[in-house]
Amino acid sequence: MVITFITIFAIGIAAGVVGAILGLGGGIIIVPALTLGFGMPMRTAVAASTVCIIATSTGAAVAFLRDRLTNTRVAIWLEMGTSTGALTGALVAAMVNQRVLFILFGLLLAYSAYNMFRTRKEHSRPEVVPDAISRTLKLGGSYYDKALGRRVEYQVTRTLPGLIIMYFSGAAAGLLGIGAGIFKVPAMDQVMGMPFKASSATSNFMIGVTAASGAVVYFARGDVKPLVAGPVVLGVLLGAILGARLMMRMPASKIRLFFMPILAYTAIEMIYKGVKWW
Amino acid sequence: MVVAIEPEEKAEHPIELVLARLLRLGSLVAAALLAVGIALMVLGHTGLAPKLITAGLLVLLGTPVLRVVAAAVIFVKERDWHFALFSFVVLCAVAAGIYFGKGM
Question: Do the interacting molecules here have an ipTM over 0.85?
Answer without folding.
Answer: no
